[in-house]
Amino acid sequence: MANLMKREPSSALPTFQGLQSAINRMFDEVTDGLNGVGTRTWGPPLDIYETDDQLVILAELPGFKRDEIDISFGDGQLTLSGERRTEDEKGRTYHRNERWYGRFERSFMIPSAYDAEKISAKLRDGILTVTLPKREGARPRQIPVSTS
Length: 148
Description:
By secondary structure, the protein is of the alpha+beta class. It contains one helix and seven strands, in the order αβββββββ. The strands form two sheets. Strands 1-2-7-6 form a four-stranded antiparallel sheet, with no helix packed on it. A hairpin with a 2-residue loop joins strand 3 and strand 4. The longest helix has 20 residues, at 16-35. The N and C termini lie far apart (59 Å).
């Protein structure tokens, strides 16, 4: 039987963003314990990859409907945002509450090599796929080699 390990796409050294997230979680846990009210924010896990023709952003948003997600682009920045509301049910006593609630926002600077006028987005099975095609001049092309 094979051992399963979490795949870390980056190097073994933590990134500054990963370090920042770890520090934020540590402070959130401390403040949650002190005053019962957390200042935690959340963001959906993402995969971002590039092909010869496009940049693709995949965001995990289980339970979200199309109208609960906002995607905007301006000044070279793509922003994904939305909000997961709490299920305010009377008579519930939670023994564990690990799901994140509240507003999220993730922003990315998009290089000019991508055509912002042709950004598309699709939500299927809890995965938001945002596709940014490359401009024609930014796509790799083959250069013929002459013999003379």
